[in-house]
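Form 12-C: Joint structure prediction
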Amino acid sequence: MEYLEKNMSQVENGQLQLTNIYKSFGSVRALNDVSISTGPGKIHCILGDNGAGKSTLVNIISGVLTADSGEYLVNGKKVIFSTPKQALNAGISTVYQNLAIIPMLSIFRNFYLGNEPVKDNYFKFMDKDFAISTTKQELAKFGVTVNDVKRPAGTLSGGQRQCLAIARALYFGAKVLILDEPTSALGVKESANVLNQLSLLRERGINIVLVSHIIDHAYDLGDLFFILKMGELAGSYDKKDVSLKTLRSILSK
Amino acid sequence: MWFFFSIFGHEAFLSLSGARSYLQVSSEIGILAIGVTLLMISGEFDLSIGSMIGFSGMTVTLLTLNADISMPLAALITLLIVLLLGFLNGVIVVRTGLPSFIITLGSLFIIRGVTIASSKIITGRTQLGGLETANGYDIMTFIFNNSLQIGGVDFPVSIIWWIILGIVAFLLLTKTQVGNWIFATGAAKETAELMGVPTHKVKISLFILTAFCAWFIAMTQTITYGGADVLRGEQKEFIAIIATVIGGTLLTGGYGSIFGTMIGALIFGMVRQGIIFAGADADWFQVFMGIMLIIAVLINGIFRKKYVTG
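Section 2 - Result
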């Protein structure tokens, strides 16, 4: 409970705003004057076909790419991220479909990768016992029970890997969680578990940005929908104002 | 392996002097292979270490004899140059994104060529001797060519250096933050970068470490023989890779162990000296090592599949 409260207070300010974003790769314009605004305790879905600019937008939010022009505000403050680490430090964490975890690395090493707990400042010896016990504990919060977290993470199922990545992001203070196609590689049951976990996180006040082409999952879960077409924002909708049928027809137009 | 040669080999293999003989060979390859292992786990190769051995030996000898510097200082200057070479290897690899196999194959030829050519220009020869009377030779001997008497047999100090370096590398790899980064860099560079791991720094540092190992072996050899030869260290890069792979490290990076590599180097030493003790033609040694390498890679491949996919 203590952990929950700690995170509750942290996530009060997961405000994220992008205005008039442009991004080109050579002569190809990937994003053209895109503006979105997201806030805590909501699930935002970025929808669109392949090549619509979803990944580019996500990469700008997560610091992998920098926009050519436009403003990026985190909690009202202007930011320019040039590395993913800077975005991470600002509480913006991205869970990528294929890159979330390293299969060959053990589960607990994955959990602490880049944030290893160290026992001393000189040699940077890892506090393995601490790492192992917290990894178990944090995974259990997401319904993943693993007895041996020294196992390679590749032995986890797809859904468990997603949960590992999400648990890790939250443990390290994510206020904004960006998920790239979290359910596209999962079975029905595993998808349901991941989606269920996400709606629990919404209740805790996390700002969730979901990139998906599975519109049924997105509609079930989402509060706000941003539709990208050919690099432009074709519309943003509140769930109150739009039905699944309408959303689908807008997308397929 | 030990049992094999104990049974089929000569009784001298079992004696302390037999042990000294294979341990000396193992330690030399072992020290090199420790650097190679860490670098390979991070996903890179360094084929230029063999030529760095020749280069280091020649440089330290030339500096001592021709530039009239005391030998420890010459060794230090040589070390700085060699570390710079390792640094350059690393920087070129991470900046260009080209396979290190190709880049360091290039530097292998460059360094070897420069060593031979400059040696010919400066001294007109490719082999140099006469270091024994040089200034500071005794200090260098103390560090690199000391020996420890056990049961009347002199065990060279390189065995101790090998074990110490092995323990340090083992602790670094399995117990520290940097160790975690080395594994992650080799297993999935892109993911590691997304998590904030400085993969370029990791790789460059390990290229420098490998260069250090080459320098260390070069110093040991130079002191042992009292001189240098431009061709020294030839094929050592391959042998170090063989010991590493036999020890279970994946060629593609992301998985491996220092302990395995030390066993690999031990096997190498035992087989090489064991074949001599057994009275067989030493040429068969190469055949045997080649077969061992292929078997090891096959086993590693199966192991990896099992390990990663569960």
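Section 3 - Comments
The interface with chain B takes residues 64, 83-85, 88, 94, 96, 99-105, 109, 112-116, 118, 123-126, 128, 152, 154-156 of chain A (CB under 8 Å). The radius of gyration of chain A is 18 Å.
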